[in-house]
Amino acid sequence: MRWLVILVACGALAQTFEQTPKDIKQGETLKVTASTNVQSARMNGITIRLFAQDGGGWLGLMPVPVLTKPGDYSLAYLDEKDAVVHSTIIHVADARYLKQNITIAPAIASLAPSPGEQQTVGNFRKEVSETRYWKEPLTPPVPGCLTSPFGAMRLQNGKPTGDFHAGVDQRGAAGTPIHPITAGVVKLVKKYNLRGGTVAIDHGQGMESIYLHMSAFAAKEGQKVTPEDVIGYIGSTGRSTGPHVHWTLYVHGEAVNPGQWMSLQNCPAAKAAPVKRKASTAKGM
Hints:
The structure is a single chain. With 285 residues, the protein is mostly beta strands. The protein folds into 2 domains: 14-93, Macroglobulin (MG2) domain (Immunoglobulin-like), CATH 2.60.40.1930; 99-260, Glucose Permease (Domain IIA), CATH 2.70.70.10. 9% of the residues lie in helices and 39% in strands. The protein has 3 helices and 23 strands. The strands form 5 sheets. Strands 11, 14, 16, 17, 18, 20, 22 and 23 form an 8-stranded antiparallel β-sheet that branches. Strands 2-9-8-4-5 form a 5-stranded mixed β-sheet, with no helix packed on it. Strand 22 (244-251) and strand 23 (254-256) form a beta hairpin. It is globular and about 60 Å long. The termini are far apart.
């Protein structure tokens, strides 16, 4: 009996719980790891699953929403009965996102979503698949610089929208091939009024990405893709002021800063007023 107690105690001491990065900002992603089977983790009202990894241990991705107030938060590791097995304090720092004014023609600004557009994309963001396809480093979908960064509080024609830029806009000529940021399975290939030509990809275990305003598609729903594949081409469909790719990285449905995962450079002329364009007369975009 004494040996059993010693073995149990040693097993408990061998358990490790880690979080990276140590310094997290609004809009970033916290990697939550455990050396033992932990079902989930919870922080600031968000609960995520932890998945067994091929190299050993368990990993989960905890999103820190852009609008999270800076401060200290309790991160709890939970067992299958939702009981806390370990907890720690995570400090969330102010990311100091900038404000950005977008000049857009009234006809473009007034575009409404296609029937079912919001619900379909919303359902995609809720999906959490078992298989991990993603691996680091993630890579930008096109080589262009950023004309609009992640997290910027948006003004439209000088008026506050009360919203922030949930993705990034990368510059590119019309027709430039777009690649997935990492491997995954294509879940959506649709033409929408608001988002334009749209491709959405599930990268597994809580990571997803979506690419908007495409002029044409090169992928099909259900297709497995890698960063070497082309999924579509830069265009200016939907609510867009000119050819570019807007794309968003999601972690458990929350838009997160892709700049934490890859190198992205701002365009030298990013503050210049974008060129207006006339409203598209095409249907179903």
